[in-house]
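Q: Hi! First time doing this. I have a protein sequence and I read that you can turn it into a structure. Is that right? Here it is:
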Amino acid sequence: MAVEPTRGRLHEVDLLRIVAAVSVMAYHYLFSAYAGGLSDLRFPHVDVVARYGYLGVDLFFTISGFVVLLSAWDRSPRSFVISRAVRLYPAYWIAVTLTTIVSVGLSQGRFPVSLPQYLANLTMFNSLPNIENVDVVYWTLWAELRFYAMILVLTWIGITARRVTIFCWAWLAATFVFQAGLLPHSTDLILNTQFSHYFIAGMALCLIHRYGATPQTLAIVAISLGNAIYRGVGFADRVGIRYHAELHRPVVVVIIVAIFAIMLAVALRLTHRFGRPWFAVLGALTYPLYLVHAHIGFVIFERLGDQVNHVLLAAATMLLMTGVAAALHYGVERPLAPRLKHLLDRGLPGRAVHALRK
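A: Yes, that's right. Below is the predicted 3D structure, encoded as structure tokens:
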């Protein structure tokens, strides 16, 4: 393996995060809110494009497979758990609380939240006992947590290129065995087969980025792409049925292929020249923006939709949510993350001397 492993921020990935977050926000504001009966604001002509914005989540999952493995390399299990908790929870706790307050106080019963539901959501494991999410977008966090469990296993056995390659093949094979109906439904809790191909491809792309392309890693990416198209077309059909709207299969396929192609270009270091340091500033806002935009935005639409021009209201709401995300990042994530890390560092057993610290 000729390419020397390197660390360093990939600013072009920050740009992709921005694109993914804006795509999902556009999907919710310009298509699904009206199509799902949550708002009277309709955006004809624009919604035929915005309806594909949900695929921003697929891009997020691919990025996650890439960067989470990259960040976990050489970490101890303990260090990995702390790094993920510090990354996920501070902004999430505030977002859940803020969304709950707005939902209970201003949604006029459209988005009810009970105290047990709120408390369960704070753990981020509420899907395990099948307790409803406070906000519709939180379902993706459960998929992410299950992927983190996979990476945690790798940190326990020790992350090497060979072990990651074997792990990718094993997870990919198990995905196909499940899809063939040869495994009980309960195993999907671990395998996460609806989206496993994105995480697997991301991991293979991480190997390509660190060590260069090999026939095995390229094969993993290619097979993952094939399954992503297969499952993605089925998912798009279900989205169309749910919202009584047409999603064209060729468009879905082109977007999925583009996600893989762009991420492969990142892994092959072909996109570095497009990265800009300031992308990191906006990239840091994507997680809090994703957390807060949906239900709060729907409530704003419901409250002000008959008083303000629809286009102006949608644009202003997007800007407002970006401002809220910035407040969450700079007012919550940045000051609280070091404190949470310190508490976990002291409180979690099994301190590893060799753990890398952020």
